[in-house]
Structure formats: structure tokens, C-alpha cells
Amino acid sequence: MKEIEKKTERWLNDKKPLIIAELGTSHNGDINKAREMITAAAEAGADCVKFQIVYADEILHSNTGEVSLPGGKIKLYDKFKSLETPPEFYAEIKEYTESNGLLFLCTPFGMKSASVLKSLQPKMVKIASPELNYTGLLEEIASWEVPILLSSGVSRLGDIENALESLMESRESGIGNRDCCLLHCVTSYPAPETDYNLFLLPNLSAIFGVSVGVSDHSADPELVPALAVIMGAAVIEKHFCLSKNDPGLDDPIALEPNDFSRMVKAVNRAVENGAAETIAHYSLEKGSELVKRILGNGVKELAASERANYRLTNRSIHALRDIVAGEVLKKDNYAVLRTEKILRPGLEPCWEKMLEGRTARKFIPAGEGIRFEDI
Description:
This protein is of the alpha/beta class and 375 residues long.
């Protein structure tokens, strides 16, 4: 248990970054598959394994339709419904994770999953990129007074600032290096290595006063993780699978055990060798022009591969059912959900508490975002 406590604060106290194997929902609700994945991740060199607590109704509206994912287009709402598992499942995998000497990490997507996760007394919590603007969820998790990993895919500097302010206002001690690690992320599956702009890492740390890391969706096992380390990444997260041919949502872009082990060795080598030698190594092996493009210019902007998804994969306020003109809005007829690409986005989640009691100015179809002009 002491080793797990040490890993919890590795981004603060250790030269070696915390390495997270993102298992997500790739277990497909099978406890034996989850155990097998945890064991394999430990053997591949992970310090931590991360899961997701999924309840479809707090992520998407059933009218979302098909969503393009690495494995093709699927009805994501229906898939999420099939991945719902009881709280006992997560309690069991947490116990098994810790029995393997790994840190248990999990992502909640709304208040129900957050309640389940809180009951497990996690030592750390991960917030996914689409929930970066989910004010209510950020405030709830901040109140737990545990370290937070905050992913920043499909975001601008102002979005990150607003998220950190929400966390700070809900935590008496404030938010800083000891409380939060900002994970630079490109929300594309797979993400081009050249979209990562890793010179951004020290800039983000300086601007916001927090630790930084990378949640990497690129295909290459080594390039982004190793170069991120020499740019100051204290956390490296990468999707993990037993086989890319498995049916998990993220398995096609995840690393199999041998490649994950290769990534761990590359990260350790970068820590040992330092910036100049690491850049020279990959410039010789992969080409200096590619390395320069991966390092980027250090300016925070939406990556080319994710730009079209801004305000679509993020959260906004949506009608849960048809709302007729003249109807008074109540809490049970709207929710903060991901928009995706078929439905229209609505108001930012920060307006959620101010909607109750407002009157609909026009008809709002079920699933569509609720806009200022609608009320």
C-alpha cells in the first residue's frame, strides 16, 4: 500500500513520470477480462490502471445517433447502455488493481457515476476532456480533496482557465501542483503525432501553476511519450489492450502489452538521457523534421485533427424530452450532455442552475441543445 501511496504523488516527488494504462471500458463488463488486463498492464510496466464508470443517460441523449469511432460508426448511446455495470464491479477491480501494486484510477461522467466512485474512496480522480466544461461535475469532484488529473482535448486556453477556476472555487486549499495535473490531449482517434505541439507543456505549467502531462492517442508507442517527458510531462497516459482485434471501443488505437512495455522503456530512457540526447536519438531514427513538428511552436490552439469537434464533444445543456412553447423548464426535462455531431449544442453547463423556472419561447425537440433564443 505504501508503494501505491508513492505512485499517487509521483508527478510531484519522483523523477520518473506516472505511467497510466487506460483500460476504459475494454473489459466490456467481464470481470475476468478486467483482471487479465490489470495483470498484463502491471507486467508491461504500468504504475496505474484507469477505468471508466459508464451510465449512458448522463453522457448522451438517446437521439444522438451514430458516432464515428476507431472501430467504425456505432450507436454510442446503445453501446454505453451495454457497458453499464453495478458498483460492485468497480469495487472488485479496485481491490484487484491494488493487490497488484497498481494505483486505481477512474473517470466519472456525471453525478451518478461520481457518487459510485466517491464510495470507493479513490486516491486520485481523472476528468475526461469532454467534461472539462462540466461545471457541476468539476465542483463535485473538487470537494473530495483528492488529486485530480484533468484532460484538455478540444479546448482553448479560456476553457482550461474556466475549469481550473471551478476546481479552485470548490476547494478551500486552492488548486496547484499538489492538487491537479493538466493532461495535454488531442481528441482524435488515432491522433497524428504532429498535432501534439509538446513545447506547449512547459507553457501550460507556467500559465496555470499546475503540473502537466500527456494523454496520448497517437499510434506510435514511443514518440509522443518520450518527447513529452523531456518537455516536463509528469504523467503519461496511453490506451492499453490485450489485442487490437478485441471489441473494446478504444482497442483499435490502444497499445498491446509488448508495445506498452516498449513505451515504458522509451519513457525511462528519456528520463535517463535527457532532452538533447533524446531529441538526437529520435531525429536520427525518425527524422529531424518529424521531431520538430511533434514539438511544435508552444502556442495553445485547437489541433487540426480535432478543430471540427469543438463544442460538439464537449458538454452543453440539452432537452431530455420535447419541450413545447410556453412550458416552464424543470430540472427533470434538461441535462448537461455531450452533443456529438447530429444534435445542436446548447448553453454552456455553467448556465444549468439558472434554467429552472424559465419559460420556453419556442418548441425544443428532445435531444437538442437549449439555446438563449429558446427561452
